[in-house]
Write a structure and sequence with these properties.
Layout lengths: L2 H5 L1 H10 L22 H8 L3 H8 L8 H10 L4 H12 L15 H9 L4 E4 L5 E4 L1 H6 L9 H7 L1 H6 L3 H16 L6 H13 L1 H9 L8 E7 L3 E12 L2 E7 L5 H13 L21
Antiparallel strand pairs: 1-2, 1-5, 3-4, 4-5
Helix pairs in contact: 3-4, 3-5, 5-6, 11-13, 12-13
């Protein structure tokens, strides 16, 4: 994380969000000579009913204890939704704390058993979108769902994953916003620091999205992907918390076109029975008898 974010997260968030609100959205005349995108500080202060000097102190980190009433007014002016508003309130409530010792993310044995029995794509991910375990159908759906891969890194940097996503632009925005939400006040977590640092260096798309300070939950939903073998698949996604990790499952509507394609993918991914591969003795005609 950048020093200004970790030391003044409330101010960084306020600044990023006001730059995303146009004067027209706030009910103000656009003006002809605006030097900054979005709203000016004094405009936010005016609309929120606080002094410009006080708002400046909030953005610059000189006052880190705004009242809930002030924060609610700012959330209204900045057009925050419920998740963003909760995030804003959490930033103001955060207090310095001693670094916590992180436990390694662990996939329970029963989840490995469950993965082996599921006939739909399923995998386990950690807080930073690391793939910790997966079943054969998940790997058949995408080889990037093997353990050891990182879903966000692949989404941003792997051309095959980019082609796999029907709406890559939305997917990247959702994932980056979800990562910021997950990080919360764990800005000293080594895994988060490593991932954010790597992506900030290697992906312009990540840098652009990270600077927006979007926050979002990435739970259930429906997505469309382009599989290189069976074509377009429309799949529902559910995320189920298990201890400290998340079980993710993808499944189609029953008897839909995607359901048929997923069954075909399952059949294609089955290993050939021993001795029955094309050209093997089992394919040869039976010997003639005299």
């Amino acid at each position: 994380m950048k020093d200004d974010e970790s030391g003044n997260r409330l101010g960084s968030y306020l600044r990023a969000r006001r730059e995303l609100v146009s004067p027209e959205q706030a009910g103000l005349p656009p003006g002809g000579n605006r030097r900054v995108p979005g709203l000016r500080r004094e405009e936010v202060a005016l609309l929120a009913g606080i002094s410009p000097d006080y708002y400046l102190r909030l953005e610059r980190g000189r006052d880190k204890n705004p009242s809930a009433q002030v924060l609610e007014s700012l959330a209204r002016v900045l057009r925050l939704d419920d998740i963003e508003r909760t995030y804003l309130l959490g930033l103001a409530a955060a207090r310095p704390r001693a670094p916590r010792r992180k436990r390694p993310e662990h996939v329970p044995a029963r989840v490995h058993e469950l993965l082996a029995h599921l006939q739909i794509p399923a995998f386990v991910e950690g807080r930073a979108f690391d793939v910790l375990a997966s079943n054969p159908m998940a790997v058949a759906l995408s080889p990037r769902l093997r353990p050891g891969r990182n879903r966000l890194r692949d989404l941003l940097l792997d051309p095959e994953e980019q082609a796999f996503q029907q709406d890559w632009t939305k997917a990247t925005a959702d994932f980056v916003a979800a990562l910021r939400t997950t990080i919360g006040d764990d800005t000293d977590d080594p895994r988060f620091v490593e991932l954010v640092g790597e992506l900030a260096l290697s992906s312009q798309r990540f840098r652009t999205l990270w600077a927006r300070h979007d926050v979002r939950s990435l739970d259930g939903g429906t997505t469309t992907v382009h599989h290189p073998v069976v074509g377009e698949l429309r799949l529902h996604r559910d995320k189920l918390p298990v201890d400290d990790v998340i079980l993710v499952v993808y499944y189609p509507d029953k008897d839909s076109d995607s359901d048929e394609k997923l069954r075909l993918l399952a059949a294609l991914s089955l290993p050939d029975p021993v001795g029955t591969a094309p050209g093997s003795p089992a394919d040869a005609p039976p010997p003639k008898t005299s």
